[in-house]
Structure formats: structure tokens, C-alpha cells
Design a protein that fits this description.
Length: 262
């Protein structure tokens, strides 16, 4: 299927590895020009090299730095001639017990996982509406639907973003001008984030990481963890010309883990 987005420009955040890189790879294969961001420059340059090799005809630009820093956001936006596609992504805050978190911990979580995506969306969607095409995909978490008790910082911040998007995506000025905004909710994917969470659980319980990983896989109906490239393919479809009637949705990719009907 031709997704119809060749030659478009996309910003992909946290794109040096994991799900962000999976999304960048999928878009690159569709001929989309990329501005990619991540905090670590070395890993970011390695990812850019991989993307250029994968799709030699596209333009790949890099901006290293913390996307929650307003100066870095300005650099990212300035590097992109025209933002047709925005993929918001950020590493989640650490797990723990809410009794140990202070106000600063909550502010950092909100800044990274709620306020920064909103600022980037604000900078892009009116231009998208004027041009008659725009796709925003926010990578959140399956914990928005089924909260994980040790991920309270993430549960709170990402749920706040989810509520905001529910209203924004349905504004006629955006939806009526072919601008869609959706949230992708990953479950257990084979990423550094997953392994950090498993390591924290292992430290707390005294159970070996490999044992916990095997138990977690067994609890997934698909009997495996997801892969970044299959996540990226789903993201690319949401960014395509074929997904213009999908907006304001929270879409789970979790191998069937969520047990509910709705």
C-alpha cells in the first residue's frame, strides 16, 4: 500500500532508539523527510546514519538535546521546513512509590510527558490546518488504559495529555481540515524502557530479571514482546493519507494484554 506521504516532512522525538526509531524507520521507508531528536548526540547520529542508508533519497536532520527545553524545541522546529507529521515521544519517568516523590518529580514528569507534547502540537497544528494536511501521533502508554501501580508519575502525566487530546482533536478547525491527532498506547515492547522496569521489579522482589521477563511474556496473549518496527508500521499508517478519518483515538498495541471489552 502506498501511504501517500512521500516528500512530506516529519519531526520524530526520542528517535535514537526504541519505539521512536521504529517510527522514524517506517516513515523513512515511505519517503518522508525527517528531523529527529534525542538527548544523546552519539546515538542520534548513529540513528541518522541508519535512516540515510535505509532511504538514501530522503533528507535526515538531527537536533540533539532535551526536547522539554524550550531552546531545543525551537531548534527542532526551525530545522523542519514544514511540519506535516509530528510524532511526540519521550522516555517515561522512573518507577517507584508515590510516597517518595516530591513536587519536583511530578513537575519533571508533567513537563516531559504532557506539557512538552502540547507545546509542540501548538506550534504545528495551525500550519497543518492551513495547508489541509497534518498528522500528530503521541506515543503514550498502555498504562493509560490499565495503570501500573509503580508507574504513577507516568500514569498521571500521560493521562493528562490524553484528556487534553480528546478535546483538541475534535476541534472542527483541525479535524475539518484533515489534521488528525491520535495516541498510540504501547504495551510490552522490546525496549530499553521495558528492561529498566523489569530490572527495578527484580531489585524490589529479589527475582531474577530473566524470570520476570519470561513471566511477563507468558502473560501476553501473543506470548511475546512487541518489536519496534511493527509499532513503527502502525504509526506510519496513522500518518498516511488513508487515516484521515481516524482522530482523537487511543489505540492499544499490546499483544492482547488489556483484558477489557472497551
Amino acid at each position: 500500500m502506498d501511504l501517500g506521504i512521500s516528500g512530506r516532512w516529519a519531526i520524530v522525538c526520542a528517535a535514537s532508539k526504541g519505539l521512536g526509531l521504529g517510527c522514524a524507520r517506517a516513515l523513512a521507508q515511505e519517503g518522508v523527510n525527517l528531523v529527529i531528536n534525542a538527548r544523546g548526540d552519539e546515538a542520534l547520529q548513529a540513528a541518522a546514519g541508519q535512516l540515510r542508508e535505509l532511504a538514501p533519497g530522503i533528507d535526515v536532520r538531527t537536533v540533539a538535546g532535551d526536547i522539554s527545553d524550550p531552546a531545543v524545541r525551537r531548534q527542532v522546529l526551525a530545522a523542519c521546513p514544514q511540519v506535516d507529521i509530528l510524532v511526540n515521544n519521550a522516555g517515561g519517568p522512573p518507577p517507584g512509590d508515590f510516597r517518595d516523590w516530591q513536587r519536583d518529580d511530578w513537575i519533571r514528569a508533567l513537563d516531559a510527558n504532557m506539557l512538552t507534547p502540547i507545546e509542540l502540537i501548538k506550534a504545528c497544528v495551525d500550519g497543518m490546518a492551513e495547508r489541509g494536511f497534518g498528522r500528530v501521533v503521541n506515543i503514550t502508554s498502555g498504562a493509560v488504559k490499565a495503570p501500573i501501580d509503580t508507574l504513577g508519575l507516568s500514569n498521571g502525566a500521560r493521562s493528562g495529555l490524553t484528556g487534553f487530546i480528546a478535546g483538541l482533536a475534535r476541534q472542527p478547525r483541525l479535524a475539518g481540515n484533515n489534521v488528525t491527532i491520535n495516541n498510540l498506547l504501547p504495551g510490552p515492547f522490546e525496549t530499553e524502557r521495558l528492561h529498566k522496569t523489569l530490572s527495578a521489579a527484580a531489585d524490589a522482589s529479589g527475582t531474577p530479571v530473566d524470570t520476570l521477563a519470561a513471566q511477563r511474556r507468558k502473560n501476553v496473549p501473543a506470548q511475546r514482546f512487541g518489536q519496534a518496527d511493527e509499532f513503527g508500521a502502525y504509526c506510519a499508517f496513522l500518518c498516511s493519507i488513508h487515516a484521515g478519518f481516524v482522530t482523537g483515538q487511543n489505540l492499544l498495541l499490546d499483544g492482547g494484554s488489556y483484558p477489557g471489552t472497551f
